[in-house]
């Protein structure tokens, strides 16, 4: 008998290894919170679309071009993205992957980020700046889920689940292909969960 795992969905997780990452993280946290204070347009958009939280997605979504601190983070992320692209066997000889979007998310109590994907991007990811104990992780959906039809429920190991939630830890990043649907469940703790999301595109 032969069993083969075909069409795997690869997820990349790692921590920033650069010397002084804690100092970079502290600067990022200050700037994320300051951006929330300064970004009136983002607060208005979030009030309509992101109850209980703040995101700069619709107002300041190229932070790697606007802030030296975010640019330093982008340089670190570039190294990880290149490694993930090799694991995915991407042929990038014609053109490189480049960061196109980078924005801030502050999830207050009760905030939730519904199921979505990142259209018109190649790779997407999240870097965790502050994750208070009990704050939600990143929930990933099995991309085959809508095609399971009459399949019985699966039990046992994580690989058998239709959903996998990755725990969020400060200093950690998660990378995935942009077509993979994901969400962040409701934040039930009385503290803000702070993250930075980003996209890389090949075109």
Low-confidence stretches: none
What proportion strand?
A: 25-35%
Instruction: From the 3D structure, determine the CATH topology.
Output: Jelly Rolls
Q: What would you call the shape?
A: globular
User: If you average the pLDDT, what whole number results?
Assistant: 94
Q: What's the name of the CATH homologous superfamily?
A: q2cbj1_9rhob like domain
> According to CATH, what is the class?
Mainly Beta
Q: In what order do the strands lie side by side in the largest sheet? A: 1-8-5-10-3-2
* Helix fraction by DSSP (H/I, runs of at least 4): 25-40%
What is the radius of gyration? Answer: 18 Å
Explain the overall architecture.
It is a single chain. The chain is α+β, with helices and mostly antiparallel strands. The chain has a single domain (12-146, 161-201), classed as Sandwich (Jelly Rolls), CATH 2.60.120.620. The protein is 26% helix and 27% strand. The chain has four helices and ten strands. A six-stranded antiparallel beta sheet has the order 1-8-5-10-3-2. Strands 4-9-6-7 form a four-stranded antiparallel beta sheet, with no helix packed on it. Helix 1 (21-38) packs across helix 4 (68-87). The longest helix is centred in the middle third of the chain and has 20 residues, at 68-87. The radius of gyration is 18 Å and the shape is globular.
